[in-house]
Structure formats: C-alpha cells, structure tokens
Amino acid sequence: MTYTQLAVLGVALVIAWDLWILRTRLLTRQVFWMSYAIIVFFQLLTNGVLTGLRIVRYDGAAILGSTTPAEGPPPIVGDGRLLYAPIEDLLFGFALVVLAMTLWAWWGRRGVQREPRSGPPRRALVPLLAKVGGRSPEDS
Amino acid sequence: MGQWSYLAVMACIFLGTAWLELGLRTRVYRRWRRLLLTVLPVVALFYLWDAYAIASGHWWFDEARITGVRLPLDVPIDELVFFVMVPIAAVLTLEAVRSATGLPVGDEGPPDEAQP
Fold first, then answer.
1. Which member of A94, A125, B8, B49 has the lowest number of beta carbons within 10 Å of its beta carbon?
2. Nearest chain A residue (CA) to B9
C-alpha cells in the first residue's frame, strides 16, 4: 500500500477505535478539538523543519505529491504538500495523536491513575490563560 | 548540528511541552504508569508502520542528520524517540487544556467525584 492509502486507513481506524471500539468518544468532545488545534499548529512547525531541511524525504510513488528533490527544499505549499510536508503527514499525525489520547482516557475510565487530576494552573499563568479563553480563577 | 538535527527537533517537542507539567499542573509524568500503558501500544504500532514504510521506500532519511543508530527492522533510533515524544506531548496538551478550561474528557469517574 502507498503512504496515502495507509494514512487514510489509519484515520478511519482511529475514528472507529474512539467511537465504537473503546467508546472513549473523544472526537465528540470540545476538549479534544481544542487540544488538536494546538497540536496541529506545532506539528506543522516541527514537521516543516524535518521535511523542509530534507531530514526526512519521501517517494513520489507513495504520496500524492512528488519525490523530495535531491537539491533544495520541496514546495512550501502545493504539489500535495503543506509547509514542506506531505499532507499525508497530517493524517499520520492525527492517527498518532488520537490513538495516544484515547488510550490515556481509556485507562482513566478503567480507574488507572485517575488521580492526581490535572490542574488548576499556577496562579502566575491565570491572567495569561484568561486572555486565551480559559476558565476564570473563581471557577476553579 | 549535523547528526543531531533530528534529535534537536525532538528536544524542542520535549521542552515545548514539559513546562505544562509544572505550569498547568498536568500531572502526566507523575502518573507514569498510566502514561507508560498509553505510550507503549502507540510505539509498538507506529514502529511497525515506520518499519513497513522504510522497507517499502515510502520515506527515508538524510544519513548525515540522524544519529546513525539503527534498531531492529532498520528503524532509526531517532524515529523511536519521535514515537515516544509525540504521544507524551499529545497527552500533556490534552491535560493542559483540561487544566485551563475544566472541560470534561470522559474519564472523570462517578459524578460525585467529577471535576467542575
């Protein structure tokens, strides 16, 4: 199978895994999508370094775009790439992140180290978090 | 940076998320048994995916910018670090968002014990 096919299959499998197999239903929760929005931003940055500097290179036969060129960086956007990386990497990353988070939530549901719970944030960070839409101190 | 380039990116992921453990009190590293049970299956599965992709020529690496240490099935040790660091970073982010927002994840347990 090509990377494109495997990446699409990976996403389909983790969706089924979350909704119907583990039934963690993280994909239906706001907390997941807020987390994923942060993660995908940093994924594009770090993966942009790995692929833009051609530390990792791809075969055009396995992806929608072309083979990583022998000299110079691949396209920043276009030819099946986004910030130098094949768009398949977004699907790969999604599958990786969803699998990790669902397993974490599942162990918690089973009662494995539900405690100590996360939060509250340190006081020094509260004004900063309020700016980006976090809960106000009186809620916590 | 040469052969440390790949691992330098991994160090950025580690440092970029480790502070959440202290700043947002995520208590993810502290719950290391639950973390280990989470990370190990992810590593196993994605290690195999990586091995298949490398064997099939889907992707390869600039030998001058990875450590050169190869694990079984020809997977660079740098990639193993990736498959450990990224799930940890993902869980840290999830717990950081929960810490900051109080939104439920679904693992809170019985209602009387649940967080607000």
1. B8
2. A46
Q: For A31-79, how does the pLDDT look when each residue is reduced to its tens digit (9 = 90+)?
A: 999 999 999 999 999 999 999 999 999 999 999 999 999 999 999 999 9
CA distance B50 to B82: 11
Query: What local confidence, expressed as pLDDT, does residue A132 receive?
Result: 80
Q: Which B residues in the span 11-70 are in contact with A, Cβ-Cβ below 8 Å?
A: 12-13, 16, 22-28, 30-31, 33-35, 37-39, 41-42, 45-46, 49, 52-53, 56-62, 65-66
Residue B27 has its nearest CB partner, among A42, A62, A116, at A116
Q: What are phi and psi of A130, to 5 degrees?
A: -60, -35
SS3 A57: strand
Low-confidence ranges of chain B (pLDDT < 50): none
The whole-angstrom distance between A101's CA and the closest CA on chain B is: 6
A-chain residues within 8 Å CB-CB of B59?
3, 56-59, 62
Three-state SS for B7-48 is HHHHHHHHHHHHHHHHHCCCCCCCCHHHHHHHHHHHHHHHHH
- Model-level pTM? 0.94
